[in-house]
């Protein structure tokens, strides 16, 4: 069996949902009750969105996770996905990728429904895309719905993935929770579904707390104040808890925590950490220990 | 404004459907009555799926058209699409691509709802993906539904695009109906919608009449006989009407005619040309002027 035939066989094993029609048809067909459909798509390019030394199963996992994270930000339940895969010419890499992708899809109950597998000319950088379809039960939060006076929360500490990326870059064999945070992010689907009916605005932190909070403020026509940057114990053990570490954590990408705004009188229905608030005006203000700090030159990852 | 900012501005102009949320959110959100969703995705790679000398607007048009053709094969109405675009570093190429894409989307009422724009490392071949979502009103035909005794039809002559590809390869400045058939294929959406309730099997001819008919036969567990290969006047004028020309036309890709099976007693509700029939058994038989012909070594395009 050729490498490509083997890849397609593995892919078909993964696409066992009846809507996928065994990947043998022109399209997937899905019966759906009246609903709100949530659609998102992400492309990951070798050397741009992940390190060439990252293990293939981590790249597969991450491609699923970043799309699932976009569904989480809408409170949506995954319905299915389509994979656009460029065969790399390296059979082990391709099957390792599918293994990690399949693990993430199974874990989060997102069936593979279709897509397209192509061959790239030899030597081209790998590029993989996934399009995810989700279903939202009720109100679908937007980035731009925040109100003046809303509190801002995150579903967990930020900066783990940023430190993990540094560690993986220095040593591709590095492991541990920070490297895992970078390579195998966890989409906050359960939290997103519980939060969606209550938040005034929500998004996932894919590019960094500062830049993503600034985007929420801009979309809502409001000023954003970040007055707390929560670090994990793992980051504090590795890097300490200085202002510089906090600012680096708040401008690093790949966290995939949810960032949401909620009226001050409400209590979040999930574990969440207050990080600031929104008020009339525009722009972003960063405070650490009560003091206004100069913003870093780079607020986050600009092309995530 | 940077080239990337300009591209994103053009992209937002194209994504004017409210469901796209101005491409400013994590995901597109679509209100949908109970329906059957049809999902398809195609990737086109420079030098693999199109010629590096093809004009960018033709590549944009074609990416939309090949996905629309998959919807047509399901009798589906386009609902929207997501674009995964790798910026080429060539501003004129990128905006030319969007122009052709936008033209095809507008022509066929398929709104752009989202996607992802990334930068590829310099020198990488271009790769573009589109995921299309359609809605089917009633029964959704599959490849595998044909019955023994069914007649096989196509919605028009085959081979135009194959000759067009040869002409464009010989001279990138070539023009005319055959080059247009290759560069700007027309998805048969109206025909697909009219046919879907009546056919026992349907697919689009993307890889060649012979290989696609063989796939329909295999999926239906039947033998396929092709006893007529319809050529267009343009192909006959350019190449003549010999058996060799017919066989080349039936094994060339990119036609995007619909191929469908229907009981012999029924009359197709659209203009259609009979090309053969299905019967018990397996395999593909090719007849020209009543004589069985040896099959060509290559039945069609294997990785379209």
Mean pLDDT of chain A: 93
Overall CATH class of the largest domain in chain A: Alpha Beta
CATH superfamily of the largest domain in chain A: PurM-like C-terminal domain
Number of strand elements of chain A: 12
> What structural category characterises the helix and strand content of chain A?
alpha+beta
Summed up, the domain count of chain A is 2
User: What CATH architecture label of the largest domain in chain A applies?
Assistant: Alpha-Beta Complex
Percent strand of chain A: 25-35%
Main sheet properties of chain A: 7 strands, mixed
Q: Give the SSE order of chain A as H and E letters.
A: HEEHEHEEEHHHEHEHHEEEE
Enumerate how many helices of chain A there are, as a single number.
9
Q: What proportion of the residues of chain A is helical, as a percent range? A: 25-40%
> Quick one: overall form of chain A?
globular
Question: How far apart, in Å, are the first and last alpha carbons of chain A?
Answer: 37 Å
CATH topology group of the largest domain in chain A: Phosphoribosyl-aminoimidazole Synthetase, Chain A, domain 2
């Amino acid at each position: 069996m050729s490498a490509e035939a083997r890849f397609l066989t593995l892919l078909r094993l993964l696409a066992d949902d009846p809507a996928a029609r065994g990947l043998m048809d022109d399209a997937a067909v899905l019966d759906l009750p009246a609903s709100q459909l949530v659609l998102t798509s992400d492309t990951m390019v070798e050397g741009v969105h992940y390190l060439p030394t990252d293990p293939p199963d981590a790249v597969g996992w991450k491609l699923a996770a970043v799309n699932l994270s976009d569904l989480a930000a809408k409170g949506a339940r995954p319905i299915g996905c389509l994979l656009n895969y460029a065969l790399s010419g390296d059979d082990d890499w391709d099957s390792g990728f599918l293994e990690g992708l399949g693990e993430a899809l199974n874990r989060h109950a997102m069936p593979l429904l279709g897509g397209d597998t192509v061959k790239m000319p030899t030597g081209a950088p790998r590029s993989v895309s996934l399009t995810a379809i989700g279903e939202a039960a009720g109100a679908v939060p937007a980035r731009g719905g925040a109100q003046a006076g809303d509190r801002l929360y995150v579903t967990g500490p930020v900066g783990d993935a940023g430190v993990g990326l540094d560690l993986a870059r220095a040593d591709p064999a590095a492991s541990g929770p920070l490297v895992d945070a970078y390579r195998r992010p966890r989409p906050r689907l359960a939290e997103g579904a519980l939060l969606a009916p209550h938040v005034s605005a929500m998004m996932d932190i894919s590019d960094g707390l500062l830049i993503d909070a600034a985007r929420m403020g801009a979309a809502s026509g409001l000023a954003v104040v970040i007055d707390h940057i929560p670090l994990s114990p793992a980051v504090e053990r590795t890097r300490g808890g200085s202002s510089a570490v906090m600012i680096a954590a708040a401008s690093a990408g790949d966290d995939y925590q949810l960032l949401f705004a909620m009226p001050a009188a409400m209590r979040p229905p999930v574990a969440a950490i207050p990080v600031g608030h929104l008020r009339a005006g525009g722009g972003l203000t960063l405070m650490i220990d009560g003091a206004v700090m100069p913003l870093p030159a780079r607020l986050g990852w600009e092309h995530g």
